[in-house]
Structures are given as structure tokens and as C-alpha cells.
Specification:
Helix content: 25-40%
Radius of gyration: 39 Å
Strand content: 15-25%
Number of strands: 35
Distance between the termini: 136 Å
Length: 744
């Protein structure tokens, strides 16, 4: 190649290479260029797009005022609930202002931040309850966390101006420093209603408008699922404002001021308030964080509520079982109005305390908790949810509910009556609410849910503090030996517990205790029996002492699940063994002779073989005449103390066949429901190991009073229980008199 050729070729090569590089760059740019059909960021879509330009001027002006223009113009992932201009013009009219210029910066920030939900959701995914990757529960969500949170507010607390921030967890000392306690926005979609089996009327009950099928708080979604580069836009036909939480709503409504004062125990001073705590020392980071943003007068105090409450009314989160649990559920509070609550205080709660400040704190916690529900209680499901004490809401939707609100952390109902809580309106209520019976209230602690249940009926014999002390007991809580009896701690608690169970009568219907004159026998909670007649009552120990206790009929109280009865002493159980009780009862004298002379009886321990001291028994003792007849018929040896081995064996077998273990059976029509009677094992077991049975029946009068009782033996013989001389009370046992000997 000559020099001329080279001079021409090299420039051409450079030009060709340059053109090639330009072409490659164009291809690169085209490949990676922003697609022409990709929507811009939220701010651009609402401001510049042909579809929306000019329809969101008010909202966008507030976005700029609130400092969110850059956020909504750049990367991110948002769900934006954007009210259009017509929605804002209606809002201006509602507020009596002329336009955006009349909205202050703080309000602008609230309106915009509350319209922004973290992450982007269309109408389908909006209803997902996010429980973890791949585990979302479809159509189970009705709330989402917004960008808005209250932060620090200045309040007057106990007469002192204080910087306060709300709790973000339940319980004192549980504040999470990295959680801003963001408010949630509620929304309601048709598929959520179907999933939860609630109706449009449930939603309409809280809002003065027809449910459209897609609603965000008070606004309908006019246009949905508008895609933007950094999120999804849903256009609203009304402006939504940050909702108050339950605490804020209570504080804003004077008609609930009495209930609020009880929730926060305003009657206690700050040092003695166990319901509410203001803590400025545990979280110094809060003062540093907000000090740079706000002109603080002092340290930031976290206001938290006792963990004894079902929830903290200022906690915007839910149970926090997982980070998103507030999406699918919320708290519910039923708050009685002042007049209704005052009536309850006057009639029930303060009957024996005089002032709220005298009521034990645990009772006040129970009172508040019976109005707190750890779930969203929709109007049509009023009876299907349980409060913190396991009770349904006992209000009539039409006549008792005076106020309904969906709030940022739950549902709220104002009521014209208090919740008819089990602890306060059952038989348990009398010892529970009377300081003169505070020891009994302590003893009833393990039983309180049982005996306060409206599904079960009880008679409650009251045990006053003075009666317990007079009986020889001392109760010193917090000491190594809390209970003593006659100065000794040995089995003192077991003794008083057994006496308590004697005072809990199991009944089918409160009417059973309306008449205290007619002779009756009742099984108590511990399985032992007591007897009532002629306005008197006694247990086995009282019978031993020859003492019957008298009812104070004027004090008798009919509760919603039974009767509360007052007597002039305590019910006592016998200290005797079962053998001693048999020996000491005259009508069993011949039966006693055979028992005393048998191989079953140990005169050293006073015990009967096979009869443990803590076991329940029914003893069927033939009368003296019946035993004489059995002797004449050759069915029993004539000598109870015979030394003949075979005769002693016959006597032992005879005795065993008249003892029924593990059961106490009386003629009351309760334990025997089979018209043909029920089979019961006796102590007599054959050499082959087969327990011999008897059939007991009290259906002669159709299981109705006056009750009868018969016993049929293996030979088909029927013995009658001689009622006037039966129902003899012993230690965990009942002894009946029969008119014939049972044959095995």
C-alpha cells in the first residue's frame, strides 16, 4: 500500500469506527431506555398526565406544603389514597374555609401523611393479611399502616405541663424505641366482608353513607388501581383525616369522662397509680430525637398502661404477634356514658366501699377489662366475640348503643349501660365487692370464672372475715405461713379450702334455694353434701356438734346465676372417720355391730379396709329389723363377733356389698337420669376380679320431688331407702338406711 492510499484509508476507517460506536450507543440507549408506556411517579401522574391533570391541584398543593413532593416524585413504594379536587372542595365547605391557603402546615402534613400507606397495593392485594412470605391470608385485612404518627404532645399531667408520647406496645416498660406508633387507616372491600361474614350494614352502622364495596374510612374509592412508577393510586371522593385512637376519642368526649377517669385511675396520685405510667428515664433517646424537631419544655415521657388491661388505649399497634397483625384485627371498647356508669357505681360497685379510691385495684382492672375486647366486634357479631374476661358483649344494638366509631386503633361503642360482667352480677359479686368478705374473695380466686359463669347455677354461703377468724383461722398474706389454724400452719389451708367448697352449693336452678324450709339435701362443689330445712343449714361437722346454722333470710340475694345466702357461722366437715360416723348413729346400731366385729375394721386406726380417708362413699346400711330378718332367713350369721372363719368371710362380703366407692348418691333426682336406674360398683369384688353391682333408682315419681330411692341387688330384690332416717352426712360420704339386706 502506498502513502497516498494510507492517507485516504486511515481517516475513512476512523469515520467508520465512529459511526459504528454511535450506532452501538443508540442500540444500548434504546434497550435500556425508559419504556414509553411506563407511568411516571405518583406526583407526575397526578399533576401532568392527560387523565388527571387539573383534577388534583388541591391535593398536590398540600403535598408540596407537607414536604412530600420529592418523596412522591422519586423512588419508593406507596399506596396513595388521593382525594380529587371535588372532594377537597366539599372538605373546604365542611370546614368553613375557602381553600388550601386556609389550611395550616401541620394540618397539611396530617392530611397528606395519612393518605400514604407503606408499600403498593391494588384492590386485591390491599385485602391480603400479610403473615409471611407465601402465607398471606386472602381477603382478611381491613387496615394498613400510614406514614402519619402523632409523636410528642404537650399535656397537663397531675397539674404539670409534660411532653408525652403514646405507648406502642401493651404493658408498662414495653415501649419499642424504633416504632413510631403510626396510625392505621381502615378500608372495607366486598371480599373482606364475605371472608368475615359481615354485611354492608355493619360498615354503614359507622358511616352516614351507603357502602359502595370499596371504601376507605368515610370515603369511597372512585377510581382504583392507577399504576405509578413508585406505587398505586386510589382516587377518593372524600378527604380522610387522621382518625383519633381510642384514648384520644375518650378524652375528646365529656360524656365518657367518668369512664376515662376510671381507666386512668385519676383518683390515685402519680406515685400510687398502677394503671398509667409516665416514664421519662427509660428512653432518653426520645428526648434527643424530638428535641431537634420540636421546642420541648422538658424530657419526653412515655405514657403506658398496665399490662393488667387487655390493651393500651393509645397503642396504635395490635397484639404484635407479628409485625402486620394490625392489618387483620383491632381492639374494641364499649364505654358507658357518665350517667349509666354513675348508676352502676351507686348501686353495685360502691355499695360497700363508699368511694372508687377504696376499691381494690384488681377489681377496677376487672371492671375496665369487661368493656375491652381484643378483636374487632362488628355490630352483627356482638354476641360472637369475647372480652378480656371471656364474656360476650351484653348490649342490645338498638337500645343500648348510643355512639359508634371506627378509630385508628379499633372500634368504639358508647353505651347507656355498663357491661353486665359476670364477676359483678353473679353470686361471686357479693364476696367480690364487700371488704368484709375479702378473705373469702381471695379463697375464691381459683373458682371465680366457674362460679361467676351464667351458664352454671350456684348457691353461695357467705364466709365473713370475722367468721373465719372466730373459727380459729388467721390469714397473713405474704408471710412464709400464710394460713394458720389454732396457731398451727399444718394443713390449715387445706382445711379452710374444704370448708369453702362446702359453701359452694351446686344447683340446677336458683329456685331450688328459694324455699329454705322444706327439707333438702345438696351436693357442694367439693362433692360433699349439706342439708337445709326449717331455715337452717348444716354440714357433717355441724351435725357432729349438734349445731345448725340459721339463715338471715332478709339478706338473701338473687344473682343472675343463683342465690347468695348469709348464715350465722361456717359450715364444717366432720373430723370423724366413716366408721365412727356409722357407729355414732343410732339407727345403724346392728349394722355397726357387724362392722365393728368384722375383719374389715381396724380399731387402732378407726378405718375400714378399702375406705380411704379422702375417698367418696355411699353407705347402704340395712335397718336393725332388716338385719334381724336376714339372720332369721339364714343369710347372715347371728353373732356379729363370731370367730368362725367362714362366717366372718360371709360378714365381710355382706359389708362390702353395702359400700359404694367413688360416689355419693342421694335421693335428689340428679345423678340418676336413666328411668330404669343406674348401675354402681360396690366394694365387693369376686375372686375373678369382677366388681359386684347394685342398681339405684329414684324415678318412682318421675325424678321429681318428693324423691324416692330404691336399690336392686344381684338377686333382683329391691330395697327401699327409708328417707326420714337417711341422708346421714359423714366425711365425704352419705349413709342411707335400707328396709332389707342386699344379696350378692
Amino acid at each position: 500500500m502506498n502513502k497516498f492510499t494510507i492517507r485516504i484509508y486511515l481517516p475513512l476507517l476512523a469515520i467508520m469506527m465512529g459511526l459504528s460506536m454511535i450506532s452501538c450507543q443508540q442500540e444500548f440507549d434504546e434497550y435500556y431506555a425508559r419504556p414509553s408506556n411506563l407511568a411516571g411517579p405518583v406526583y407526575q401522574v397526578l399533576s401532568d398526565s392527560a387523565r388527571f391533570q387539573g383534577n388534583f391541584d388541591h391535593y398536590l398543593a398540600l403535598v408540596e406544603r407537607a414536604g412530600y413532593k420529592e418523596t412522591l416524585s422519586s423512588a419508593g413504594y406507596w399506596t396513595v389514597f388521593a382525594p380529587d379536587d371535588s372532594a377537597y372542595e366539599a372538605y373546604f365547605l365542611e370546614k368553613g374555609i375557602s381553600g388550601v391557603q386556609d389550611i395550616d402546615d401541620e394540618t397539611a402534613f396530617k392530611l397528606v401523611a395519612y393518605s400514604l400507606v407503606f408499600d403498593a397495593y391494588d384492590l386485591n392485594t390491599l385485602a391480603f393479611y400479610q403473615t409471611g412470605p407465601g402465607n398471606d391470608t386472602l381477603s382478611s385485612s381491613f387496615r394498613r399502616k400510614t406514614a402519619y404518627y402523632t409523636g410528642v404532645t404537650r399535656r397537663n399531667v397531675y397539674g404539670e405541663e409534660m411532653e408525652v408520647i403514646g405507648a406502642n406496645r401493651n404493658g408498662i416498660g414495653t415501649f419499642s424505641i424504633n416504632d413510631n406508633n403510626n396510625k392505621h387507616v381502615p378500608y372495607f372491600l366486598n371480599h373482606y366482608l364475605r371472608q368475615k361474614d359481615i354485611t354492608a350494614q355493619d360498615i354503614e352502622a359507622f358511616y352516614n353513607r351507603t357502602f359502595s364495596g370499596a371504601q376507605v374510612d368515610r370515603a369511597n374509592i372512585a377510581i382504583s388501581n392507577v399504576r405509578a412508577e413508585n406505587g398505586v393510586i386510589h382516587v377518593l371522593d372524600r378527604v380522610i383525616e387522621p382518625l383519633q385512637n381510642i384514648e384520644e376519642y375518650l378524652a375528646s368526649k365529656p360524656e365518657y369522662s367518668l369512664f376515662k377517669s376510671i381507666v386512668e385511675m385519676d383518683y390515685r396520685n402519680r406515685a400510687n397509680n398502677v394503671a398509667v405510667n409516665y416514664d421519662s428515664e427509660s428512653y432518653p433517646q426520645l428526648t434527643e430525637r424530638y428535641g431537634a424537631l420540636q421546642q420541648l419544655m422538658g424530657p419526653v415521657h412515655v405514657k403506658s398502661y398496665s399490662g393488667q388491661y387487655a390493651f393500651a388505649p393509645n397503642n396504635e399497634n395490635f397484639l404484635r404477634a407479628n409485625v402486620n397483625d394490625a392489618q387483620s384485627d383491632s381492639w374494641t371498647l364499649f364505654a358507658p356514658e357518665n350517667a349509666a356508669l354513675q348508676q352502676f357505681l351507686d348501686d353495685i360497685l360502691l355499695e360497700n366501699y363508699g368511694a372508687v379510691s377504696n376499691v381494690p385495684d384488681e377489681i377496677m382492672f376487672d371492671f375496665v377489662n369487661m368493656h375491652m375486647f381484643q378483636s374487632a366486634v362488628w355490630p352483627s357479631k356482638l354476641r360472637e366475640n369475647s372480652n378480656a374476661l371471656g364474656e360476650p358483649a351484653r348490649f342490645d344494638l338498638e337500645s343500648n348503643i348510643t355512639d359508634k366509631k371506627v378509630l385508628s386503633n379499633g372500634l368504639f361503642y358508647g353505651t347507656n349501660r355498663v357491661q353486665e360482667g359476670n364477676f359483678f352480677f353473679s353470686v361471686y359479686g357479693k364476696p367480690y365487692l364487700n371488704p368484709a368478705y375479702s378473705i373469702m374473695r381471695t379463697l375464691l380466686g381459683p373458682y371465680r370464672f366457674t362460679i361467676s359463669s351464667p351458664g352454671q347455677n350456684f348457691g353461695l354461703i357467705m364466709m365473713s372475715n370475722q367468721q373465719i377468724v372466730d373459727a380459729g383461722f388467721e390469714y397473713n398474706p405474704g408471710t412464709p405461713t400464710e394460713w394458720t389454724f389454732n396457731g398451727s400452719g399444718n394443713l390449715a389451708f387445706d382445711r379452710i379450702s374444704r370448708m369453702l367448697e362446702l359453701s359452694l352449693i351446686q344447683i340446677d336452678n336458683p329456685s331450688e334455694l328459694a324455699d329454705l324450709n322444706t327439707p333438702k339435701i345438696f351436693e357442694t362443689f367439693g362433692g360433699e353434701y349439706i342439708r337445709i330445712e326449717n331455715n337452717q343449714i348444716y354440714a357433717s361437722g355441724n351435725a357432729d356438734e349438734g349445731v345448725t346454722l340459721n339463715f338471715d333470710v332478709a339478706q338473701s340475694h338473687l344473682a343472675n346465676n343463683g342465690y347468695v345466702l348469709y348464715v350465722n357461722g361456717l359450715l364444717k366437715y366432720t373430723e370423724k372417720t366413716l366408721a365412727q360416723s356409722i357407729f355414732d348413729t343410732p339407727q345403724f346400731s346392728r349394722f355397726s355391730d357387724y362392722l365393728r366385729g368384722s375383719s374389715l375394721y381396724n380399731s387402732g386406726t378407726l378405718q375400714i379396709e378399702g375406705v380411704g380417708s379422702g375417698a367418696f362413699f355411699t353407705v347402704l346400711a340395712p335397718s336393725n329389723d332388716a338385719i334381724e330378718q336376714a339372720v332369721l332367713d339364714g343369710k347372715l350369721p347371728a353373732d356379729p363377733f363370731t370367730g368362725n372363719v367362714e362366717e366372718r368371710e360371709r360378714i365381710a362380703t355382706f359389708l362390702k356389698y353395702h359400700f359404694i366407692p367413688r360416689n355419693t348418691i342421694v335421693p335428689d333426682g340428679k345423678k340418676i337420669v336413666n328411668p330404669a336406674g343406674e348401675e354402681f360398683n360396690t366394694l365387693f369384688v369376686t375372686l375373678e376380679g369382677e366388681a359386684q353391682k347394685v342398681v339405684i333408682d329414684n324415678s318412682a315419681n318421675g325424678n321429681n320431688p318428693p324423691f324416692t330411692m330404691t336399690v336392686r341387688d344381684n338377686q333382683g330384690n329391691v330395697a327401699n331407702v327409708i328417707l326420714p332416717q337417711s341422708n346421714v352426712l359423714a366425711s365425704r360420704a352419705v349413709i342411707h338406711l335400707l328396709d332389707r339386706v342386699l344379696e350378692y
